[in-house]
Specification:
It contains seven helices and nine strands; from the N terminus they run ββαβααβααβαββββα. It has helices spanning 37-41, 57-68, 71-76, 90-100, 102-105, 116-120, 165-171, and strands spanning 11-16, 31-36, 45-51, 81-86, 108-111, 124-127, 132-136, 139-144, 147-153. The two termini are 23 Å apart.
């Protein structure tokens, strides 16, 4: 994906709201619904960062905290929403968001279960030696009304320098 272009259109399957009487109860609650990239990002200034997986060491201890700890600073710089894109199932993502505190910090999580967006961005990644197959490279995109303003990609495995929350703070045009 190239800066200046629109983010690819993708539909995500998510759970939203409370479970109705007509639906099988789910531990995470809500009803299945579809949300598109337009639903999440249209008419907003957004940070979308992605990582190889929930509960993985670098993702949990380095990348996620940099965004959790700086949510208010991002808001002051004109960012409307910060989304963490995870290539895991929705249930794992929910528990990880709760256990790390990401859900309480103001971050929002999107589960790209089949890597639809990651594949369209050409940012898929596999590391079979550690059990990560068809996941996401570590990246961060700054979007303004669906347009990619900046894209930063971590090229080295197991580090979070370019895509850290602290570095992204320096990348935001004021």
């Amino acid at each position: 994906m190239i800066e200046g272009f629109k983010i690819p259109q993708v539909t995500f399957r998510i759970r939203e709201g409370d479970t109705s009487d007509n639906e099988i109860a789910c531990a995470i609650g809500g009803k299945w619904t579809n949300k598109s990239t337009d639903d999440f990002f249209k008419n907003k200034r957004v940070i979308l960062f992605s990582l190889p997986g929930a509960f993985t060491p670098t993702c949990s201890s380095l990348q996620l905290p940099g965004f959790e700890n700086n949510c208010e600073r991002f808001k002051k710089l004109g960012i409307d929403e910060i989304y963490c894109l995870v290539v895991n199932d929705i249930h794992v993502t929910k528990v990880w968001a709760e256990q790390t505190g990401g859900a309480k910090s103001g971050l929002k999580f999107i589960t790209d279960t089949d890597s639809s967006l990651v594949n369209k961005l050409k940012l898929s990644y596999s590391a079979p030696d550690v059990g990560l197959i068809n996941r996401s490279k570590r990246f961060c995109i700054i979007l303004d009304d669906l347009i990619i303003k900046k894209i930063l990609i971590e090229e080295e495995r197991g580090v979070c320098n370019v895509t850290s929350g602290e570095n992204i703070l320096t990348q935001i045009d004021k």
